[in-house]
Amino acid sequence: MSCFEILKSSSDTLARRGRLTTRRGTVETPVFMPVGTRATVKAMSPAEMEELGAEIILGNTYHLLLKPGLDIMAKAGGLHKFSNWKRSILTDSGGFQVFSLSKLRKITPDGVKFASHIDGSRFFLGPVESMNTQRVLDSDIVMAFDECTPYPCTCEAAAKSLALTHRWERMSFEQELNPGQLRFGIVQGAMYKDLRIHSARELAAIDFDGYSIGGLSVGEPEELMFDMLDATTPEMPWAKPRYLMGVGTPKQIVEAVARGVDMFDCVMPTRLGRHGSAFVGKDTIPVKAGRYAEDFTPIDENCSCYACRNFTKAYIRHLFNVGEILGVRLVTWHNIHYFLTLMRRIRAAIENDTFAELRREFQ
RNA sequence: GGCGGGAUUCCCGAGCGGCCAAAGGGGGAAGACUGUAAAUCUUCUGUCUCCGACUUCGAUGGUUCGAAUCCAUCUCCCGCCA
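The joint structure predicted for all components is written out below.
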């Protein structure tokens, strides 16, 4: 039984309106998945995330493995019970941490030896460990363990890394999971179209439930990222969900949807929210800036989120100015609302076949 | 009325003869952030014709090659005593 259904395709782009079904319910796509690395979407409660309409959030294998650790996660009965999140969860494999914490690693054919960024203690994470951890976390979508190449990256290094990633993905596929857990493979290949195409085809031959595109938005020019997507998505199975990992800005999301991507995640709304920047239109505004000290209008007049319905920029700016936690919460709230609303608009536009129009708005 | 202490660049506050346009905070400005080591980080914050010059450290005058730093007077503050 397929977990993914395409409800409608755009007539003039590769955009698809779909529905992903996990053990915990359905996820309307294209979807944005807020990031909850350490078993919480920073600054937000599960009830608030539900109210915002989030159908699926992320968790992170690496971080949860370090704290609270596998024993506690097992005793807790998995990530859902532990954090009281009842809808779907996708867990990242820890592969990205191999990349982002690269100073502390040693790569072997079976995984990566890390020094914990918290206390320096050593541990090992590879496809076997990552799959086992995600089985214990009992997430609904499990990501294969991969290596994310940096930018720039030589062709030789990228090809070598890709071979290792493919080995790890095959190993990831072979590990046992809990019944109903979905498993996604990850296309890599740095900024080389031929490697990307090769990777997409290689993985398509493995019966993953979905496929993601990793290793993008790592510092490359935006156009290069779009070029990579142009080359990659046509090689990915049409009938299965496609997930662009770690992306991105509203424009990048719209452009990726146009190229046939169904799922996204990014720390942008939550991190920028904590840092005092709010999404408005196709830009962000620095709500915490002094220029708003006497601006008694909402972040966005046209926004229906809790923050915009009830508070002014002057007030939120004041909260940031004095370090009150509510400021962080309100802008995070607004930003998540912004991203989820953007996705609702994208879905509606594909349904009405007016996606091209919406796309123009973000050019 | 007497005796002490003090006045520093937007604010607080270091400095106590040259290395001072003057530490450090705050405030302000600009920017970064993309599968989260991030409620974080970076830069700037006297003026200008800006690799150099000019004007600043309560006011005025003085000592000195040279003063925010020493002396005198004055003006305001803050303690204590009558």
